[in-house]
Amino acid sequence: MTEIDSSDLRSSNRPQGILPWLGARLPYLVVLILALLGVAYTSMSGRPLYGYWEFLAVAIGLACVAIGWRKTADKAARKQLLITQSLHWLAFLIAMSILLLPSVNTFLNGPATGLALMLLLALGTFVAGVHVSSEIAVLGIALALTVPAMAWLKQSALMLVLIGLVIGGFAVAFRPQRSNGA
After folding, report:
1. Residue 1 scores a pLDDT above 50
2. What is the mean pLDDT of residues 117-123?
């Protein structure tokens, strides 16, 4: 009888390839894309999206509860999870609402408001992830990193378009020619 290595069993149970990996992380990618779209819209339109950021915060809060719920079987721990996550996200929703108050919002232009809301969402996500799931914490870090990236992208948009045109021009000029096989 041959001995089976336990690492062989673990690797055979795991789906292989990029699609299963991507599928497992799809909710996190959707949140990241929605947050980027919110910042992009706010930057382009010059005004904040009222309700959009609150929706994202509530969606991430519900995801945190769902993930934490699966990790705990104890009724008391689940009750504690509901209370702490509710208070956590309520605090961030209040902070976002304060930032969107007309008396406060007059100090910030539209793009700055969008970036500030994104930073608040990133901070809330990271802190919730510290208590619930490392994947949520990583999402918070990714959201936080998009804040300076979006600011840099806005400042460098013309340069990026020019670089893209140059690369596209080279790709067209030096593409391989097909022979007609005659």
Report:
1. no
2. 90
pLDDT at 13: 56
- Contact indicator for 121, 92 with CB cutoff of 8 Å: yes
CB 141 within 8 A of CB 126: yes
58-67, 72-81, 124-133, 148-157: range with lowest mean pLDDT: 148-157
Residue 122 phi, psi (nearest 5): -65, -45
Of 10-24, 36-50, 58-72, 129-143, the one with minimum mean pLDDT is 10-24
The C-alpha atoms of residue 94 and residue 28 are separated, in whole angstroms, by: 23
In a domain, 24, yes or no: yes
Domain-located, residue 2: no
Length of the chain: 182
What is the pTM (predicted TM-score) of this model?
Answer: 0.69
3-state secondary structure of 23: helix
Q: Which residues contact 160 (CB under 8 A, 6 or more apart)?
A: 153
So what's the pLDDT on residue 91?
95
Task: Provide the domain count of the chain.
Answer: 1
Tell me, rounded to whole angstroms, the distance of Cα 75 from its chain centroid.
30
DSSP state of 17: S
Please name the residues in contact with 133: beta carbons below 8 A apart, sequence gap of 6 or more: 64, 67, 68, 71
Residue 3 in any domain: the answer is: no
Q: Which of 114, 117, 116, 135 lies closest to 126 in space, CA to CA?
A: 135
